[in-house]
């Protein structure tokens, strides 16, 4: 999801430029389109932001703490209560950073290689495509 949100956010100035015709947006489109100067750095930052946000949207540390409390379970070496939520928050933050780095390499890697080497072999194949295919295949296998 973070890659999809990032790509959609990068496409927004182009869509708005077509509807409004503003020159500021047209200049933004040139720099934010694939191959533009700011495309890869902006894409990486947006992926990191959306990944961090989406992680905590899906898994709230306080909800996990309450579920553990209701089940009578605990995390070894962590005191039940607010310490558990703080521990889960720390772990999720660290995992989000690693996940963001992985997603950024997967999504921006082919574009970076294409810009550095000036080869267009990667234009039709990106890590994002593989992620979508694997996600769809996994979801289909789970439903069958």
UniProtKB/TrEMBL annotation:
Q: How does it sit in the membrane?
A: Multi-pass membrane protein
The family database entries (InterPro entries) matched by this protein are listed as:
SecY/SEC61-alpha, SecY_dom_sf
Query: What's a BP term from Gene Ontology annotated to this protein?
Result: protein transport
Q: Which residues cross the membrane?
A: 36-55, 91-113, 119-138
Q: Name one GO cellular component term.
A: chloroplast thylakoid membrane
Q: Which keywords does the record carry?
A: Membrane, Transmembrane, Transmembrane helix
Give one Pfam family, short name only.
SecY
Q: Does the keyword Transmembrane apply?
A: yes
Query: Which compartments is it annotated to reside in?
Result: Plastid, Chloroplast thylakoid membrane
Top-level lineage group: Eukaryota
Recorded hits in Gene3D superfamilies, A to Z, give:
SecY subunit domain
Give the family this protein belongs to, as stated in its UniProt record. Belongs to the SecY/SEC61-alpha family.
User: What name has this protein been given in UniProt?
Assistant: Preprotein translocase subunit SecY
> Species name for this entry?
Stephania cephalantha
């Amino acid at each position: 999801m973070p890659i999809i949100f990032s790509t959609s956010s990068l496409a927004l100035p182009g869509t708005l430029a077509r509807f409004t015709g503003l020159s500021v947006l047209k200049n933004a489109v040139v720099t934010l389109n694939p191959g533009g100067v700011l495309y890869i750095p902006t894409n990486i930052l947006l992926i990191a932001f959306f990944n961090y946000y989406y992680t905590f949207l899906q898994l709230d540390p306080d909800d996990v703490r309450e579920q553990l409390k209701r089940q009578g379970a605990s995390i070894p070496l962590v005191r039940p209560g607010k310490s558990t939520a703080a521990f889960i928050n720390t772990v999720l933050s660290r995992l989000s950073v690693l996940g963001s780095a992985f997603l950024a390499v997967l999504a921006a890697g082919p574009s970076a290689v294409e810009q550095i080497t000036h080869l267009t072999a990667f234009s039709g194949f990106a890590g994002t495509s593989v992620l979508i295919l694997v996600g769809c295949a996994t979801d289909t296998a789970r439903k069958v």
